[in-house]
Amino acid sequence: MYTSLTNRRSFIKKMAIMSAMTAAATMFPGILFAEEQEEKLPKGGNLDWKKAPCRFCGVGCGVLVGVENGKAVAVKGDPKSPVNKGLCCVKGYHSVMSIYGKDRLTKPLVKKNGKYVETSMKEALDLIASKMKTTIKDHGKDAVSIYGSGQWTIPDGYVASKLFKGCIGTNNVEANARLCMASAVTGFLTSFGLDEPMGCYEDIDHADVFILWGNNMAEMHPVLFSRLLDQRLKRGVKIIDFATRTTRTSMAADKSIIFQPQTDLAVANAICYEIIKNGWVNKSFVEKHCSFNKGLTNMGYGLEDKYKFKDKPEKIDFEAYKTFLEDYTPEKVERISGVSAKDIKYMAAYYGDPNKKVMSLWCMGMNQHTRGTWINNLVYNIHLLTGKISTPGNSPFSLTGQPSACGTVREVGTLTHKLPHGVVMKKEHREHAAKIWDVPVENIDPKPTYHTVEMFRALDRGDIKFMWIQVTNPMVTMPKLKRYRDACKKEGRFIVVSDIYPTPTTDIADVILPSAMWIEREGMYGNSERRTQYFEQMIQPSGEAMSDTWQIVEVAKRLGYEKQFYYKEETHIEEIYNEYRRHHEGKKHAMAPLEVLKTQPGAQWPYVDGKSTKWRFNSEYDPACSNGEKFHFYGKPDGKAVIWQRPYEPAPEVPDKDYPFWLCTGRVIEHWHTGSMTRRIPVLHKAMPHAYVELNPEEAKQMQIRTGDSVKLTTKRGEIILPASVNERGVPEKGQVFVPFFDENMLINDITLDAFCPISKQPDYKKCSVKVEKV
């Protein structure tokens, strides 16, 4: 009843009517896996099909889940969804199988004398509330914390923020999206004053050229990539892969351009140099709608605890910016980046051509970067200089990796400095939240506390004593992992973990709560294109599993906040969402009513006068524009977007004689993040059973390493042994190796570096130095 990897002939025969699938199959077999739905779906039963967003990734594909006799037994793409138009990737087609692993957590577990003992949900929740009360009484409110996820539903994240920031009064709220999209947030905020893309997926149908900045879309966002391939079949668009290694995306692109790690900063500046030199600047747009800033540069790499900035940005003019770019001629940058001057000019010519609409797409390659905010700004600079922004097909577009990293982390505001509609630092934002939350405004602390890496450092130091972890697996994902795993085990720490399966993170917990998964409960996700999508509860939770939302509500009531958490269990999602919408009232961020979300496959905010806004900051489409001009970047006080002067700077740790290779980490198409769900899906686990280290073929030959041989990787933080992969899925450049991070039995993050972008606080998982040896 579920798909396996179907053969190419069957793929085309069954799905030819769906042109995007046909494009993926004929042009690049293996990118997208389709199901022979009519033959594979259960026969003879009366399936009840219900809509939902997919559980995996930030694309937000619409799926239809077939329910029979109380079980989810089938999945197919929702043809009504404008996101995926009936398509799914291999994870999507198998998504409901992740519910039925044999080792589902079904009862609360409490550690007693070093062993886990089953207990009732009431006893477990009582214990959590008691520990929180005691910790706050003995150590203060900032000794308790909650660490959530871009997999939190919107109600999950909302009640977490309300409890901790509004009631308890601590800003110790963070989410794992800090590890994957924080630089996208700070990039948007510094350039435009507001977060989230101004465009949408429909840009794909209008663009003439797609430039992918360090983004392996073929594996990370395969349904969207299939739409790019479809447009190439229909309209002859160009796809340019700009990356540090050769991937499936490179093989399917029209052109692959390889750069040395970290040097995307220099290349982006060189493109801007070419745009100005050749007279490709959209002068009218820049004069009316842009200002110029010189960014701070003396900022380090976040390696020291409690990092503080050392200088401030300043205003400059166009001429000063033009002078700065003289150090970034294509010829100079070729020597830094390894990208030929010819290829730099090739990309610049597409951006500069007034007759070509260009879409830039990126994800972790730009965001997981010690200068992640900078590189986001620099790509925006390219679009702003040419005026190729906020119009159909002209779109700088940051993709996300989790189903609600946008909806729950960026919109709800589950980061230490955020509130649902603003930031804790601004009095008017605190007053607005306090009124809705029915708490004294003094409860909301005006100072952010700890971002994710610093939060775990605080746990290590003992500043934080209690941490509640929901819907995430930091004991696989944290960089420089051993430090933080050891921190969780220190005496005087109390860790609560809510999850659906045992993981390395549940291994360090004092209390484990079984969570209801996805369609076992009701909720909403928000995807990369500002689309909020609702899903109903379709099946009963396993055992005593409870939604993460209701776990928090129950603990809040035990802490004495019955007045603020008045919700009724049977209607709490509707009540919470309606309350949450109050934070976003107005033309700039209004959310669609729940009744709208229930009847259609999502709606994009701002949702104004019964209509989704597809292109922001453009008065033709965005009702929030009010300056009388075609464009209004209303996130900034002067209504202008900022073009930032940002230099190239090297990574904090570069290869040397002792550690002569670059180490890069990432994902594979079969598994999602740490694999705690997808590795319990037999066909996916069989297709990709373990992690590996990709080596450059020439260097593997020199070291006499073949596929399957054991290889030891050593950094300044430790060592790990993995099987080699040579000339298989991806091919690194000389001097580089690549390791996927999904395998909890091969914890690559034990040896990665916890340096981060000091503006976004997002770690760089893509660059540290490593020694490679055959075992």
UniProtKB/TrEMBL annotation:
Q: How is it modified after translation?
A: Predicted to be exported by the Tat system. The position of the signal peptide cleavage has not been experimentally proven.
Q: Which GO terms describe its biological process?
A: cellular respiration; Mo-molybdopterin cofactor biosynthetic process; nitrate assimilation
Give the signal sequence positions.
Answer: 1-34
Q: Which residues bind [4Fe-4S] cluster?
A: C54, C57, C61, C89
Sorted alphabetically, which Gene3D superfamilies does this protein's record hold?
Answer: 2.40.40.20, 3.30.200.210, 3.40.50.740, Dimethylsulfoxide Reductase, domain 2 (3.40.228.10)
Give the main localization category: secreted
Q: Where does substrate bind?
A: F741
Task: Give the E.C. number(s).
Answer: 1.9.6.1
Keywords in alphabetical order, please: 4Fe-4S, Electron transport, Iron, Iron-sulfur, Metal-binding, Molybdenum, Nitrate assimilation, Oxidoreductase, Periplasm, Signal, Transport
Q: Name one GO cellular component term.
A: membrane
Its needed co-factors are: [4Fe-4S] cluster; Mo-bis(molybdopterin guanine dinucleotide)
Residues that hold Mo-bis(molybdopterin guanine dinucleotide) according to the record: 91, 151, 176, 180, 262-264, 364, 368, 473, 498-499, 548, 665-674, 749, 766
Assembly and binders: Component of the nitrate reductase NapAB complex composed of NapA and NapB.
Function (record text): Catalytic subunit of the periplasmic nitrate reductase complex NapAB. Receives electrons from NapB and catalyzes the reduction of nitrate to nitrite. Catalytic subunit of the nitrate reductase complex NapAB. Receives electrons from NapB and catalyzes the reduction of nitrate to nitrite.
Q: What is this protein called?
A: Nitrate reductase
What organism does the UniProt record list as the source? Answer: Flavivirga aquatica
Q: Which gene encodes it?
A: napA
